[in-house]
Amino acid sequence: MGLRVVLAADQAGVGYKDAIAERLRQHPRVDEVIDVGVGDVSDASAYPHLAVAGAELIAEGRADRGIFVCGTGMGVAIAANKVSGIRASTAHDSYSVERLVMSNDAQVLCLGQRVIGLDLALRLASEFLDHEFDPDSPSAEKVAVICEYERDH
């Protein structure tokens, strides 16, 4: 079974969200693209609502990964991380995207439409889906510490 990927974006990220959605529909590892973002730039819905809605789908097991876009990527990352069990971060280069998954078992990549070009955003979105976390890696113990803290607090 392929990945179910949720996309979220506010009016500052809707252009990239839509382009990423189109690209992911052709990605061999993607079975479903779920769009919880705004439909166009006239929709002024606040990014925290959209990022939380996307992150909740992942936390509930209704989506596997998420790619969230706002002007910088930082706001949607902060909002998504408020959802229990979610690990989200902004990343604007291939190495950081790789480490996001391989070292941190993150489910959400956050991008800034005002920070990077569209070609790079499309490449990073694809790369994000190509990485898999190794539960036997040395990083697994560190991720477990994060999860344990979250459960206890």
Automatic annotation (TrEMBL):
Its EC number is 5.3.1.34. The keyword GTP-binding does not apply. It is an enzyme of class 5 (isomerase). SUPFAM superfamilies: Ribose/Galactose isomerase RpiB/AlsB (SSF89623). It catalyses: D-erythrulose 4-phosphate = D-erythrose 4-phosphate. It comes from the Bacteria. The keyword Isomerase applies. Keywords: Isomerase. GO terms for molecular function: intramolecular oxidoreductase activity, interconverting aldoses and ketoses. One of its GO terms (biological process) is carbohydrate utilization. Pathway: Carbohydrate metabolism; D-threitol degradation; Carbohydrate metabolism; erythritol degradation. It holds the Pfam family LacAB_rpiB. Belongs to the LacAB/RpiB family. This is D-erythrulose 4-phosphate isomerase. It comes from Tessaracoccus rhinocerotis. The lineage of its organism: Bacteria, Bacillati, Actinomycetota, Actinomycetes, Propionibacteriales.
